[in-house]
Specification:
Radius of gyration: 43 Å
Strand order of the largest sheet: 1-4-5-9-8-7-6
Strand content: 15-25%
Number of strands: 9
Largest sheet: 7 strands, mixed
Structural class: alpha+beta
Bound molecules: 3,4-dihydroxyphenylalanine
Oligomer: single chain
Distance between the termini: 90 Å
């Protein structure tokens, strides 16, 4: 015969369920703890009349096994649920701040210039930073030992191999491979053995311009360059062409634009003249055309070399060219929104 309390315990054990380990532990202690129900029941055995003792002992042993089984089963389900349980989403947490990178101002301006020329039918060509003497000098009419080579202080790797001093060798590489009509721009890095100051650096960037076809004239060149300056700086900016000398062009010129940093008043960027030299240009020397296998009696062309740093300084009014190479995050970040 079952004790009334045993019945209550039995049904409590059968019905017990929980999802937390804390509640399960409390349940375990209630039955199996030192002061728990089962110890209490075992202590009662001696008070049971001898004829009932055996049954009573059997009943409480069954009760104990039930508790043990229940605890074990619930422990397993709870730990399984905890493994698959995804942490709840804390909507009040500050969002992770994703910082967007920015293009370097030199890349921004280079891309901008390429777009301007692409609109009028120029395509992009590239050449190597490490050049040979033929492409950098000889083919461009810089004879060996000619003083014109001193115009560009060169980093030599060995007697015949050097870091290109300008982007003009890309003209040669393109003309060696293709017959006119040719319309290309060549952006790239160039190197000169120069003292680093606010105005000059030993590494800088140029864009080379080359147009070869029948009947190309100096007026075509002027027109194209003016279009480029107006597209870049707006129609208010003044330009002027000054006669100059480059071995690979005849006649040669340099184009200046009015200095926007000092508004023509004079500053250290414009050497106190109010004008900034922005590019060199000229009609391709017939010797250069002959060197690359293009007939100078049939074809003519113009070329120009644009200094990107100089142009970027004018566009963003940066006074020191060294800022472009230091990668100081405080400087670079100012161009983020472009
Ligand atoms: N290559 C010259 C330089 O660095 C710039 C230049 C001048 C390029 C006249 C040209 C040109 O294509 O026609 O300094």
């Amino acid at each position: 015969m079952m004790d009334n309390n045993l019945e209550i315990y039995n049904s409590e054990i059968d019905n017990f369920t929980t999802t937390t380990l804390e509640e399960l532990d409390a349940f375990r202690l209630k039955y199996l703890g030192k002061k728990g129900i089962l110890i209490d029941l075992f202590n009662k055995i001696k008070d049971i009349p001898p004829e009932n003792r055996k049954d009573f002992g059997k009943d409480i042993n069954i009760l104990k096994s039930k508790v043990l089984e229940k605890v074990e089963a619930l422990k397993n389900t709870i730990s399984q649920n905890q493994c698959t349980h995804t942490p709840s989403l804390d909507v009040s947490r500050t969002a992770n701040f994703i910082k967007l990178g920015a293009r370097h101002p030199i890349s921004v301006v280079t891309n901008h210039i390429c777009d301007i020329f692409k609109k009028i039918g120029f395509s992009i060509a590239e050449g190597p930073d490490i050049e040979d003497d033929w492409h950098n000098f000889e083919s461009l009419n810089f004879a060996a030992e000619h003083p014109a080579r001193d115009m560009q202080d060169t980093f030599f790797i060995d007697k015949n191999i050097l870091l290109r001093t300008h982007t003009s060798p890309v003209q040669v590489r393109v003309m060696e491979k293709h017959q006119p009509p040719i319309r290309i721009i060549c952006p790239g890095r160039v190197f000169r053995n120069e003292v680093i100051t606010a105005r000059s650096h030993c590494i800088f960037h140029q864009i080379e311009l080359l147009y070869v076809d029948e009947n190309v004239s100096f007026a075509d060149m002027r027109q194209t360059l003016d279009y480029f300056i107006k597209e870049t700086f707006g129609s208010e900016r003044k330009t002027r062409l000054r006669p100059s000398y480059f071995p690979f062009t005849e006649p040669s010129a340099e184009m200046d634009i009015s200095c926007d940093i000092c508004n023509g008043k004079g500053c250290n960027i414009c050497k106190h003249t109010g004008w900034v030299e922005i590019l060199g240009c000229g009609m391709i020397d017939p010797n250069v055309l002959t060197n690359v296998g293009i007939d100078p009696n049939k074809y003519s062309g113009f070329a120009a070399g644009i200094g990107i740093e100089r142009l970027t300084q004018q566009l963003y009014k940066t006074k020191d060219i060294r800022l472009f190479f230091e990668n100081d995050i405080r400087f670079i970040q100012q161009f983020e929104s472009i």
